[in-house]
Amino acid sequence: MVEAPVVTASKPRSLLGNAGWSFVSTAWFAASSFILTPFLIAHLGTNHYGLFVLLASITGVLGVLDLGLGQATLRYVAHYYGRKDMAGINRTLGATFAVHVLTGSLAWALLFYGASWVAGWLAVAPQDLELTVDILLVMAISFGLTLVSGAFGAIPKALQRYDLDTAVQLGQSILQLLGTAAILLLGMGIYELVVWGLMTTLFRQILNMALAKHLIPELRLVPRPSREGLREVFGFGIYSAISQLLAVVWQESDRLLLGTLFSASAVGYLTLPKNLVTRGASALCSAGSALFPRFGATEDRHEIRRLLLDATWSMFSASIVLFVPITVLLPDFLRLWVGPEFAATSARVGQVLAFSFIFRGGFVPYQGLFQGLGKPQYLTVISLGSGLTILALNLLLIPAFGLVGAGYAYVLALAWGFSGLLYAWKVIKEQAPWSPLVRAALLPCALALVSLSSCLWIRTLAGEPRWLALVLLGVLFAGITSSLLVGADWLLARSESHAASLLRALARLLRSAPGYRLVASHIEGRF
């Protein structure tokens, strides 16, 4: 039987529009975290806050049971959607859904029956052992649900409808935020927070399935494995799974080591500044994630090179403009936001982490390139080197330097990101020279160090700023940094600069927005 071609209620959004919606989603999470974190610490205390994030790290480790099939679903649904192949879409989703039913059940069983052992393994205060077990039992159900229905969350992204995906995420987040505030104000604790998290997770999974069916009415919402479908998703997913495993090592090994060698409080002191910088990085990465389906739909090598160079310069520049001020001002921010005592312990590791993230945004485009070209094995090799380096350095540096040792490990692991970028250009450059990559990547990094040095010197002249002065300093430092980056790029290439290319893309986006055509015409006329 031949299936009908794809019938969908969806019209794909532009690359810049999708990137914008992804950015909005992650920026919202960063803003809500900014509001909620001091509230959590004040009501839970440093020890229970640390316990809360430590247990979340445990479920983060189990994320490897996705087996990379979420990325595989995104890739193949986007591929078959472009070919109007409904049979291929259903084959991919049926295989992924079937595997996730099994792995979600396994994840639930591991947490449910291993809760007592995990609680005893952690450096948890004796009076918190029973509470820890109870929390893990609830987390087992929540994580199992997330994994089972996670494949449906890839459908809007595969159809390049990041606006709809963002709406679902924001809906869950707003419910989570309101419920958390109510729970804490009523004097309840982390157990009730986790139960509320389970309820919002269920809400999101139902929305994901309903939205997937709305976008593709012929979509089958049942697990239906097939040999061809399993071969496809595992052929792509195995490399993503290894990368995810290594990403878990990269993200969680420091917290787990602190949670076993030191205390739950130490995890809290690391997690708060780490969450701040990773939220900022996630906002950039989510904007760059729209490149994955774009690279996958493009076969022209010249266009792929142009897209990689423009995206690399843009992502490096955005990352530098964001994280240079954060690196300089983080101690003052923590002092005003949480308190002097917390900042005295947490600020130094936060600055080291923020410094490492100055450069990480520029690695996002080549990751989208390798995924879009169907070459996830390249990312696996890079992730393997980076993950093992982070793990080895954490094992060496955390016992020797404590909290700040985790930050040093992140800085030293940057070498793998730059190596991946160089290799990506080698793969696609053909007869093109290396000089375009130097202008797109290495020049912004050099200017970042110049700007950082200047901003650190200016900060020494400011005393102890309050909130208004801190904001003004942040704006000043961002302005200095962006002026250096855009000015140098413009002087080198004028109308062919990456900044001009970005403005032309913005003009094309504005032309489709009512009331903005005049602005778009003005931009296109100048660039």
Structure characterization notes:
This protein folds into 2 domains: 216 residues, no CATH class; 171 residues, no CATH class. The longest helix is centred in the N-terminal third of the chain and has 47 residues. The N and C termini lie far apart (53 Å). It is globular, with a radius of gyration of 23 Å. The protein is mostly helical and 527 residues long. The mean pLDDT is 78. It has 20 helices and no strands.
Tags for this model:
mainly alpha; 527 residues; 0% strand
Short description:
With 527 residues, this protein is mainly α. Helix content is 81%, strand content 0%. The chain folds into 2 domains: 43-258, no CATH class; 262-432, no CATH class.
Task: Map the helices and strands.
Blueprint (H helix, E strand, L loop, with lengths): L14 H47 L7 H14 L3 H36 L7 H20 L5 H5 L3 H24 L4 H26 L11 H35 L2 H25 L2 H6 L4 H37 L2 H18 L6 H9 L3 H26 L1 H10 L1 H15 L6 H25 L7 H27 L4 H14 L5 H10 L1
How many helices does DSSP assign?
20
* Low-confidence region ranges: none
Helix percent band: over 70%
* Rounded Rg: 23 Å
User: Strand tally, please?
Assistant: 0
Mean pLDDT reading: 78
- Tally of domains: 2
What are the secondary-structure elements, in order, as H or E? HHHHHHHHHHHHHHHHHHHH
Strand % is under 5%
Structural class: mainly alpha
Can you summarize the main beta sheet? none
